[in-house]
Q: What sequence folds into this?
């Protein structure tokens, strides 16, 4: 009988260690329920239980780690020390703000090329972090790239305005006293106007500006969702 008691005690001790992360009252309820089930099952035998019968009752409950997992209400395997499971990497509170800062500096600095490389770092962090869904990662990366390219185009159009040039002949209509002669290079003057309105350029600038704005808005959305999930300690798939 001592052997059977030792087997039950060992089972309950192992289970108690695996439930160390629970509230003491809740842990006591689980252990008490298991002990009551074991005692009731052995009492139904109507005779002194043997070692094999005790082992069979305990086996019907499952291994202590299985009982602990069910009692914890989580399908995850508990750490050996009963502590909280470690959080996945790249879900800390700094991830979303750093991604946002790198993306903004990369987009705005795209015309300088070197700061634009920072956007690549932001894209890598977004792709590796579990804080965002697959669709959010795709939209965030694509919009960031598009916004940087569009901003590069806008600054190029602003700093390098288009010019229109016309060539004017200096020959008289009747060709002079000598009659007609073939025009030469010196017979033309070229006039360029850089201040004229360019409707096509204005439309293109507006469209590129809209792409930049949409890209920046999506980066803000990624920031807000990343911060919310990091604060709540969860990921989209959790």
A:
């Amino acid at each position: 009988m001592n052997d059977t008691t030792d087997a039950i005690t060992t089972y309950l001790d192992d289970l108690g260690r695996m439930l160390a992360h629970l509230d003491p009252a809740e842990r006591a309820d689980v252990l008490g329920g298991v002990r009551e089930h074991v005692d009731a099952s052995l009492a139904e035998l109507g005779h002194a239980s043997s070692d094999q019968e005790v082992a069979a009752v305990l086996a019907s409950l499952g291994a202590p780690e299985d009982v602990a997992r069910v009692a914890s209400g989580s399908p995850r395997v508990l750490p050996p020390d009963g502590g909280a499971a470690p959080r996945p990497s790249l879900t800390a509170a700094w991830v979303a703000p750093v991604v946002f800062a790198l993306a903004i500096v990369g987009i705005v600095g795209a015309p300088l090329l070197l700061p634009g490389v920072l956007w690549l770092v932001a894209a890598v962090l977004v792709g590796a972090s579990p804080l965002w869904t697959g669709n959010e990662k795709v939209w965030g990366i694509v919009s960031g790239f598009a916004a940087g390219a569009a901003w590069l185009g806008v600054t190029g159009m602003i700093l390098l305005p288009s010019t229109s040039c016309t060539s004017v002949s200096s020959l008289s209509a009747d060709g002079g006293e000598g009659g007609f002669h073939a025009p030469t290079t010196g017979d033309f003057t070229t006039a360029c106007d850089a201040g004229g309105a360019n409707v096509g350029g204005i439309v293109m600038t507006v469209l590129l500006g809209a792409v930049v704005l949409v890209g920046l808005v999506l980066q803000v959305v990624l920031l807000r969702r990343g911060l919310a999930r990091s604060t709540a300690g969860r990921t989209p798939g959790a």
